[in-house]
Predict the 3D structure of the following.
Amino acid sequence: MERREEKLKAFREKKDRFFKESAQSPLIESDRRKFKGLIYYPIDPKYSMIGSIEKYPTEPKPIYVTLPTNKERGRKYVKYGRFKFKWEGKEYVLQIYRPLGGGELFLPFKDKTSKTETYPKGRYLYIEPMAGGKVLIDFNRAYNPFCQFNGKYACPFAPEENWLDIAIRAGEKRFR
């Protein structure tokens, strides 16, 4: 958590450079030419949560879910576990998924800013491992799926179980 704001600013600058300069940028060419940077909420440490992931059992078999996407077919995931956090005295739970065959944990969510201030179908969160089995979930790093920038991408949407009835004014705002 030390120097968190400085690290977040550096992360945002690096991401903006990627969007502007990289051949792998999700932006269509006309957007890339005029791109001045993503629009973010101000960094606020109250949106950084440290906790543990309560893992779901995988025996006798994992729990599978299919998340809806912007394309015709859904995308199948293993339901990995859940992350509980408190916000203004109330407890919330977010479900965490893992792609089939392994890979990074995936946490899509939707909140009261969806549609008006942020991407309507939800945003994604990084899960940062920490010492002692803890994780950092920092809404300041909430980001939009690539399909918001370019329709060629297939993006899973936040399932209803990850719809929060609070406004998370942290991370990326809507692109347009």
